[in-house]
Amino acid sequence: MIRYPLTTAQAILVGGLVMGSLDILKNIVFLSYQGRPWTYVLHIVASGALGREAAFKGGFPVAMLGLLFHFVIAFTVFTLYYLASRRLETLARHPFIWGPLYGVAVFATMRWVIFPLSAIGWIKTPTAVLVDGILTHILCVGLPTSLIVYEIARRTPVPHGGVQ
Q1: Which pLDDT value is given to residue 155?
Q2: Digit-coded pLDDT (tens) for 116-145
Q3: Pick from 139, 129, 127, 144: which is nearest to 44 by CA?
Q4: What ranges do the domains of the chain cover?
Q5: pTM for the whole thing?
Q6: SS3 letters for the chain?
Q7: Are 92 and 145 in contact (CB under 8 A)?
Q8: Interacting residues of 57 by C-beta distance below 8 A, sequence separation 6+
Q9: Taking the CA atoms of the chain, what radius of gyration do you get in angstroms?
Q10: How far is CA 115 from CA 25, 64, 111, 152, in A?
Q11: Other CB atoms closer than 10 Å to residue 77's CB: what's the count?
């Protein structure tokens, strides 16, 4: 049972684990239906730091490194929204508006800023894969993040007229 109010660390732990789990599980399930092993997506994540060839030759240990990288990113993404919601009340009050927009912003940042700067580099991507990525980030990243922040804000008394 979760007890409110949550500390900032507890909120980030819960939010990062929930959102990060939804995101990675969606991708693992989706790719497994395409005949890929469950570790495939984790090797893709690890390839951002190690390069594609080294990541896919690294076996299970590199897949676990990819899982670690994924959750570092997930906690960072959740933390940014959570901390911003402490300053911009509207982020906590309107999760169905800001969550999807945040998901799209995270996708765009990853796709067009982070990937090109990483060892992955620029990847030509079919439209269907882009649409899937955007929808995944709306439904598995942005909305869960904003709904968790909304619920935390709703249950946490905030001094100075904050969200209740």
Answers
A1: 87
A2: 999 989 989 999 999 999 999 999 999 999
A3: 129
A4: 8-154
A5: 0.91
A6: CCCCCCCHHHHHHHHHHHHHHHHHHHHHHHHHCCCCCCCHHHHHHHHHHHCHHHHHHCHHHHHHHHHHHHHHHHHHHHHHHHHHHHHCHHHHHCHHHHHHHHHHHHHHHHHHHHHHHCCCCCCCCCHHHHHHHHHHHHHHHHHHHHHHHHHHHHHCCCCCCCCC
A7: no
A8: none
A9: 17
A10: 21, 20, 6, 32
A11: 25
Burial 113-123 (b: 16+ CB within 10 A, else e): eebeeeebeee
Q: Which two tokens stand for residue 82?
A: 């959570």
Indicate whether 164 pLDDT > 50: no
Angle between helices 143-155 and 59-87 in degrees, nearest 10: 50
pLDDT number for residue 5 = 83
Which residue's structure tokens are 């959750």? 71
Longest pairwise C-alpha distance within the chain: 54
Q: What is the mean pLDDT of residues 68-74?
A: 98
**Residue 34 identity (one-letter amino acid):** Q
Which pair of tokens denotes residue 109? 């940042």
Whether the Cβ atoms of residue 70 and residue 48 lie closer than 8 Å to each other? no
